[in-house]
Specification:
With 258 residues, the protein is of the alpha/beta class. The protein has one domain: P-loop containing nucleotide triphosphate hydrolases (Rossmann fold, 3-Layer(aba) Sandwich). 35% of the residues lie in helices and 24% in strands. Strands 6-7-8-3-9-10 form a six-stranded mixed β-sheet, sandwiched between helices. The relative contact order is 0.18. The structure holds adenosine-5'-triphosphate and magnesium ion (MG). Adenosine-5'-triphosphate binds next to helix 1.
């Protein structure tokens, strides 16, 4: 199992939002998390990625407990995260965004506060500038539409292009698992399809993917498995296909009968 979440509880301050959520991602899988606004989908990925500290339950990555670990450590272990908003640096160029995507694994010529106490595994995952440039070339090859825009500021691109920059940037760290929060938010239907097909392509390349989506039908259609969350709890679980054709899921969450 790549990622396993058991009975996770988390929230903000005194307010518990996740009341014991479980999910799993197996090697090579693409898993979708759907549910109404406020169900706790973003909170779940934030709690997995160490942006908020779980108050109960457990998260494991390749069988190792990572509950509450810091994002920087998780990134080095192979976990990536594309947030729902503010997922690019708008005042940097597209190319600079890609380079920034690898910053947490860059071997700095200037000693950093943490460089003295990193483990050998951490050091072995660090990248020299030449490797960062090589990875940027690979990322651009995967997103050819970005090629002519490399010198443009990310903030001046269209919503769909910015989402592509965010995905390309996240690939700079060569993640084993990518957590993607609402990649289709605010995009026209044609662009939604383009972003989803890129995500499928990333998954075909061997990266396990968890996508949170409002666009539930399209997300379930590309998913191996899906989870429906409601008010911070698991409501339905099954293959993408079975959830798409489940009449309760259809009526409650997919805007009509399945
Ligand atoms: N930083 C925060 N501080 C306090 N409460 C928050 C914070 N972020 C989210 N919440 C609350 O947590 C609950 C779940 O929010 P969350 O963002 O996880 O929902 P979601 O399922 O991702 O919804 P959406 O589909 O709208 O993105 C909501 O009631 C929200 O108001
Ligand atoms: Mg959300």
């Amino acid at each position: 199992m790549l990622l396993q979440v058991d009975d996770l509880r988390a929230g903000y301050g005194e307010m518990e939002i996740l009341h014991g959520v479980s999910m799993a991602l197996d090697d090579g899988e693409l898993v979708t998390i759907i549910g109404p606004n406020g169900a706790g989908k973003s909170t779940l990925v934030k709690a997995i990625f160490g942006l908020i500290r779980p108050t109960g339950g457990r998260v494991q990555f390749r069988g190792k407990e990572i509950t509450g670990a810091a994002p920087r450590d998780l990134v080095i272990m192979g976990l990536g995260y594309v947030p729902q908003t503010n997922n690019t640096f708008p005042t940097l160029s597209v190319l600079e965004n890609l380079e920034m995507g690898a910053i947490t694994r860059r071997i700095s010529p200037i000693p950093t506060p943490w460089s003295g106490r990193s483990s050998s595994r951490t050091r072995s995952r660090m990248m020299k500038d030449a490797e960062i440039r090589r990875r940027a070339t690979e990322a651009i090859a995967m997103f050819p539409n970005l090629q002519p825009k490399l010198r443009e500021l990310a903030g001046t691109l269209s919503g769909g292009e910015q989402q592509m920059v965010a995905l390309a940037k996240s690939m700079m760290l060569d993640p084993d698992v990518l957590l993607i929060d609402e990649p289709s938010a605010g995009l026209a239907p044609k662009l939604v399809d383009a972003v989803f097909s890129k995500i499928v392509e990333i998954n075909d390349g061997g990266t396990g993917i968890v996508i949170v989506e409002q666009n539930a039908k399209k997300a379930l259609a590309i998913a191996d498995r899906g989870y429906v969350l409601e008010t911070g709890r698991n409501r339905f679980t099954g293959t993408g296909e079975s959830l798409l054709h489940n009449s309760d899921v259809g009526r409650l969450y997919l805007g009509g009968a399945a």
